[in-house]
Structure formats: structure tokens, C-alpha cells
Specification:
- The complex is a heterotrimer of chains A (165), B (620) and C (103).
- Chain A has six helices and one strand, in the order ααααβαα.
- Chain A has 165 residues and is an all-alpha fold.
- Chain A has two domains: 79 residues, NADH-ubiquinone/plastoquinone oxidoreductase chain 6, subunit NuoJ (Four Helix Bundle (Hemerythrin (Met), subunit A)); 41 residues.
- The radius of gyration of chain A is 20 Å and the shape is globular.
- In chain B, a hairpin with a 2-residue loop joins strand 1 and strand 2.
- Chain B has 620 residues and is mainly alpha-helical.
- In chain B, helix 5 runs antiparallel to helix 10 and helix 13 packs parallel to helix 18.
- Chain B is globular, with a radius of gyration of 28 Å.
- In chain B, 73% of the residues lie in helices and 3% in strands.
- Chain C is mainly alpha-helical.
- Chain C has three helices and one strand; from the N terminus they run E-H-H-H.
- The chains are: A mainly alpha (165), B mainly alpha (620), C mainly alpha (103).
- Chains A and C meet through helix 1, helix 2, helix 3, helix 4 and strand 1 of A and strand 1, helix 1, helix 2 and helix 3 of C.
- Strand 1 of chain A pairs antiparallel with strand 1 of chain C, so a sheet runs across the interface.
Chain lengths: 165, 620, 103
Amino acid sequence: MDALLFLFFALVAVGCGINLVVQTHPISSALSLIGVMGSLAVLYLLLGAEFMAMAQLIVYAGAIMVLFIFVIMLLNAGVERKKGTSMLVKALGVPALVAFLGMVSYLIQRLMPGTENVTFGAFQGGTVQAIGRKLFTEYLLPFEVTSVLILIAILGAVVLARKEI
Amino acid sequence: MNDQQLWLIPALPLAGFLINGLFGKKFPNILVSIIAVASVLGSFAWVLKTLGALGDLEHAHVEHYLTWIQSGPVNIGVDLAVDRLTAVMLLVVTGIGSLIHIYAVGYMSHEGGYYRFFAYLNLFMFFMLTLVMGANFLLLFVGWEGVGLCSYLLIGFYILKKSAGDAAKKAFVVNRVGDFGFSLAMFLIMVQFGSLDFQKVFEAVKPLPVDQTPGILTAIALLLFVGAAGKSAQVPLYVWLPDAMEGPTPVSALIHAATMVTAGVYMTARAAVIFQHSPLAMDVVATVGLITAVMAATIGLTQYDIKKVFAYSTVSQLGYMFIACGVGAFSAGIYHVVTHAFFKALLFLGAGSVIHALSGEQDLRHMGGLAKKIPITFAVLACAWVAIAGVPPFAGFFSKDEILLAAHHHAPWMYWVGVITAGMTAFYVSRAMFMCFFGSYRGHHHPHESPFVMWGPLAVLAVLSLAGGWYFKVPHYLEPVFPVAEGHHDETLVYISVAAGVIGIGLAALMYLIKPGLPDTISGALGPIYKLVYNKYFVDEVYDATIVNPMVAGSRGVLWRIFDAGIIDGIVNGTAVVARTVGGGLRLLQSGNIRSYAAWVTLGCVVVLLALGVMSGGVK
Amino acid sequence: MPTTVPLTWYLILSAILFGLGVAGFLFRRNIITVFMSIELMLNAVNLSFISFSYKWRQVDGHIFSFFVMVVAAAEAAVGLAIILTVFKNRSTLAIDEVNSLKN
């Protein structure tokens, strides 16, 4: 069952990811991204990260993506005009990307041989309680700093979105 | 463990600093003073409440707030602790601090930058309280550096005066030498004991046998003492303190007499366990203290600036405290810290009152006969006078006596030198008092008595100076922390030291009251020696000649002309030429196209991964 | 068919998603899509954080991805505001046409 769930949602994620890259209309890309995020949430759940799965759905698939779609609608962004990408990017990027993927996969297999299989429920440390305890004790300072970061982001967004600029 | 909210004690002055520092410019002066004074008084009240709640404090009360640094075995927390030693310091710092804040309301009323002054003063309180309450060396160091910063800011408070700026820089630079020693000591402690917590370090040190101390403990103790010597103005790092009198008088009283300069003594007493394990370091501490006490006292004999006299007196008294630490009588040292805080704060504030009355006149030669014109100031200063001169049963007598007895127990010659210094102390303070208050008035201003906000705190300090030594039995209170060294209480020694004080006063009376021509005759007869002492042993000149000038000349000649102009500029210009040529070629890469950059970044990732793989043995 | 999969598969999935994000960044011209590709890359990294968290049975990885998420949210707010501003000034979303740094 775990394997089936993983395979299914991994395929959904990769499929949506590919769709994100190949679609020319931003709204399709955005919807594919939501698909990726949703299936990732299920995978998080499989890994025992229940809080992160929920946060993924609410914050990422919910809030952030709504923001994206809102901007797409606001700007009335249409289909991308076809225009060949520069030769350099193609000539350099494609091989580099392939090499990167190959390298990472190879290294993962090579450096982590015989890793245990993922069993649902084997790790139960990802509860809201556990995360809350960590956040408000050991990671209290980073947590508070984050709030300042968000405040700055809000201010930045307000300043940028004003008319005069 | 019951929670006492210790953090409130330093947090209140910090809040005062933030409010005054951020918004004070727009506030009326009265609001600024209310905020500043209330924050310190609140802190004082909280200290009293906490000490009341904690009871007899047989063991240190520690509160842990945050983990500050955690890296492998290193674990440093923001921990505040109160034990009996801290309790004494807390009472002195917040108590005297409150009085001086109140006094400053009156003293600074005509000055510009009123809010700035109080903001700095509050910030100083915050750092000083952090210093005495920190439960590990690093937190102590935070306070240590912080008070140094505030000292710098406040010495240079009169930002338009060049001498003030220079004095501030001098204090800062000289203190860096000490801080350097302190940080090295901390590194050694970290390496040796794997922790900076007072409790852990001292518990690790305690079981070590004293007679076969590892050299590293001596090194730690000596380096700590370098730090203490910088902050507490010991030979050879004392030169900054007399110049620090460029700051406003309340600052001189609070920072450069009562609290900050005693931080070195506090730190030495705090690390007493380490010092006790290193007889060599103890000897160094005692000797340096003795040299400082004598040297500063002799300089004090000849100065004419009233604040300079008291400044050298402070240096000399700090020397006393280090003698106490060096001979193992840490509680006597802290005792002297307390009584000294009373009478020296009073001396400075009184001097400030005199200066205020004379509209800024500081030269003793232009004073005289002021006893009738500003009687309250005279009365309170007289209290400080008898206290510092060691007249029983006033504050200075008790603590000085403890120190001298301990010194005699350790080495009799130290006692005799100490007694002579005590005589000199009595002499120069009496001299200042006679020149200031007796005889006929030699100045031009019209003296006026200070307002109540100024003499009110003075009166409180006067009471403390008179009764404080007798009332607060600090060594007895500190017994759980520092066992009192046994030793017979020799009455004769007490009589001798009191006699020295009385002789000092008498000599001063003879020279400055009865036969006013005598000082000139004596200084004429002593000629070169008098000149040497009057010019403070030319220490500043020696420093200028041996350290400052070679450094300036070296910087100018070697570093600037040859190194900077020749080599650095050559490298820079050469690099620029190369860069221009290479850049011309590389410009083709910089297409301004974000995606081509991204492609390069990807390539870079591949290279880094490859390197990591090869290094970790993943790729063969 | 085995009922479970090795942890390395999760990591490889993470790598694949990251690669897709890079591809999107490299080959798409629409600035919003490019931005979404960045989000995809962040998600991929989050997945590996959580996988490692599973491996070491420690919740710290979750905290890290939590912070990544927060930063992503902040970044999305500012980034989209920048996109809005760019669009207002240039009336284009094509990343290649925003090239005043060139020359």
C-alpha cells in the first residue's frame, strides 16, 4: 500500500512538474504546481510529517498559489509568445541539467546504500505538538526573527505595489 | 526552582534607554528625566524585592532564559545568576546608580543633549547589570564591552570638545588591550574546561591541588588580570582614567569611580577560585595593585584640577582593592568596592556641585573659602573626606583596615607601603578640601548653592559614607562565597593605619591652612622630583614616545608611503588593468540574460557535486 | 511487488522535481512561470529535508522546511509585488525583455 501510494503520487508530482514546464499558459503552469504540491503533501504524510503536510496544503497550495493565480489574473497574462531561447542556454543548460540529475541520483544511490524502506507510521515525531515544542524552545529565536522577516516582506510588498514607482 | 524574573533588573534600564534614545529628542526634559530615573529606581526596587524573596542566598540562584550559542559541546546560555557577591554589586550599582541619576537631573539641566545623556546613562546601567548578573564569562564579557562602549560615549559626551573626543578614544583603545587579555583568557577556559559557565568552570578548578597547578591556570588568571587591569585602571593601563574626567561629573561619579571601574575587581573576585590556584598570579595582582596605589597617590598629591585629584585617588583606591584580591582577601576587596562607591561617588558629586556652583571652574587654585558660601556641599564633602581618610568609625576605615590587615598577614612590607599610601590619601584629599573650602576666595565667579535634586542624593551618600562601613558588614555577608582568612586581629596595626591618616590630615592642615607658603617651599626644595610627580611621571609622554609615535611614524613612513602607496596601490592598479583586460573578454559572457546566468549556475552545481562526490569517495 | 519503497526513491523524486524546476527556470520566458519554477525547486528541497528527517528520526528537518516555507511565502509576496511593478512600467512579462542591465 505504501509503495502504491508513493508510486502514484510520485508519478502525479513528476507529471504535474513536467506539465508546469511545458505548458505555455501561466495559469496551466500554476494549476500543475498545485498538483505537485498536493501530491507532495501526501508524500510528507507518508514520511510521518503530518504538520508539514497540512502546512503544505494550507500555506503553499492554498495561500501562496492563490497569490500567484491572483497576479496572473490581475496582469491578464496570456500565452507565452514563441521565441527561440538563446543557443547558449540550450547548449549549456541541457547537458548541465542532465549531468546534474545523473550525478545526484548516482550519488544518492552510492552514498546511501541499503537505506531502510519507508513505512508509514514508523516515525511519529512530526506531530503538531512535537513541532510546536521545538519551535518554541530550541528554535524560538529563529522563529521570532522569521516574524520580523515577514513583516519586512509585507512592508516591501506595500512599498513596491504603490503607484508612484 | 522559584522564578524571580531576574531579567527585569537589567531590562528596565534598557527600556529606559530605548524610549529615551528613540523618542527622547521630542520629549520635554522633565519627561526624559522621569523615564530615566524611574527605570533605574524600578530596577533598584526589583533588586530589593528579589533579594528579599531569595532569602539568605546560601547558594547561587540561576535563571536560564535562552540558549545563545550551541555548537557541538559548546553550550552558552543567556543565564542570569544571583549569589551573595552579585547581591552586593547589584545593590551598589542600582542604589548608587539611582542616586546619581537623580543628581544628574539637576547637574545636566543646563546642558544640551539632555536626552542623549540619560539614554547613555540608562544603557550603561543595563550593561553593568548584565555584567554583574551574567552566569557565564561570555555574558559577563557582553556587559564588560557594553560598559566600555557607554564609557566611551559618555566621556566624549561633549562632542564639540576635542579633548573630550581624544579622552574617549584613549579610554577605548587602552581598554581594548585589557579586553584582548580577557578574550584570550576566555578561549583558554573554553579549551581547558569546555564551558564558560561559572559554576562548571569553578567546580572543575576546585578539586585541583594548589601546589601543582597546571601552567594553563596561571595563564588564564594572568590574562584575566590583564582584562581587569584595563577596566579597573591598573598600572600600566591606568592612563585612560584621569583623562576620562572630560565627561560630565555624574559620569565620572557613576562610571569612573563607583561602578564600572570596579568591574575588574568584581571579575577577579568572581574568578577567585582560578586565582587562588595560581600563587604566581596572586603575587602579580598584589604587586600591581600596590604599585598602582602608591604611584597614583603620589600623583594625586600634586594635581590642581579637583576632578584629577579625585581621579588619581580612584586609581589609587582601585590599587587597594587589587592588593586585597592579591593577598587572598577577596571579601575585603569587595568591601572596599562598596565603601569606595559611597565616598568616591560622594566626592565626585560634591566636586560636581562645587564646579556647578562656580559655573565650570575646576582649578583648586581658583577656589577657597567656599565653606561659607556653599555650606551644604561643604558638609557632605566633609563626610566623604573623613570616610576616605580612614578616620574611624566611618566607611573607609573599616574596609581599608580589612585590606591592610590581610596585607600584613600576607607580607608585612605590603602593609607598611599600604599605610604610607593611606597617609598620602588622607593628605591629598585634605589638601583638596582645604584649598577648596578654607582660606579666602580666589575665584571670579559668584558661587551659588546647588538645588535640592543635587544635594538630596549627596545627603544620602553622606549618610552612607559615614555609617555604611559600620552598618554593612560585607565580609561577614560574603563568608559563604569567600571564606575569611584566619589571622589574629592586631590592634596595633589598626592604630598605626589610623595614625597615618591623621598625620596626613595634619600635614595638609599645616601646609595649606597654617603656613600657606610651605607647599611652594617644599616643591621648590624637591625640584626635579616634584616636577616628575606633577607631570604624572611622564607616563603619557613615555607612552607617546615608545608606542604612539613609533606607531604613527611607522604607519606614516612604512605602511602609508611604501606599503600602501607602493605595494597596495600597485597591486590594486595592476589588478584593475588585468581585470579590465579579462573583463573585456568575459563581457561576452555577461549577456544580461538571466537564463544564461542560470545555466552557468547549473554548471557550477555540477562541478561542486562532482568535487563533493570525489572527496567523499562516492565517485571513483 | 514490495509493499514499501526505499527512502532513496524519495530523494531521487526530490532531485527530479528540482531538475524540473531548473528546466522551467532555464527554458521558460514568462516571469511568473519562472517564479513558479523557483517554488517548485523549494518544494523539492523541502521533500528531501523531510526525507532526511525521517531517516534520522529527528523533527529538525521539519522545522527547516517550515522555515523554507515561511521564507517562500515572504519571497512570493515581495516577488509578485516586483512582478507587478515591472509589468506596470514595461507592460511585459517576458523575462528576456527586462534587460536594461545589458550594455
